Amino acid sequence: MLFIVSQSLMLSIAKGLLEEEAKENEQERIRWMEENCPPLSLPGGTQQLMEFLKELHHKIDVIDEERYDLERKVNKSTKEIEDLNIKVIDLKGKFKKPTLRKVRMSADAMLQALLGSKHKVSMDLRANLKQVKKEVKEEDKDLRNVGDWRQNIEDKSGMDGRKKMFESES
């Protein structure tokens, strides 16, 4: 029972404190409004009221233009900061280049990829070369036309073959 009484007592004290705090907040708000916001002096006639509203709208337009200009400057600055950060990261080398894989591509296909499909460039390098006929020397013909290898060996074997070899060299 003592617990319930003390709990209700605490609640009533807290309620009183909250009411006092709300009154203080309201008084503080009124005091701040009196200091920072001068009392509104409305002209007596309709014409004067219209002029006052036009003046007020003009001030609002000027403030909106300033806000827009400042917003544009801030956006431009943030864009420049982002670009500079990217440059710094690139210069530091933190940007890792992906490993490139080998691609088999002909020279024609490579040029077409670089220059685009508009340019038709042919890289047939062999077409530009001159054809040269190869002259065959007589000594080479003799070496190639050896004939049957068995006969060559029989000719060189024995004393007669060595004599012929000796005579042909000198």
TrEMBL record:
The keyword Zinc is annotated on this UniProt entry: no
Span of the signal peptide: 1-16
Entry's Gene Ontology cellular component terms: troponin complex
Gene Ontology terms for molecular function: actin binding
Subunit structure: Binds to actin and tropomyosin.
Similarity field: Belongs to the troponin I family.
Entry function: Troponin I is the inhibitory subunit of troponin, the thin filament regulatory complex which confers calcium-sensitivity to striated muscle actomyosin ATPase activity.
Protein name in the entry: Troponin I, fast skeletal muscle
Native source species: Hucho hucho
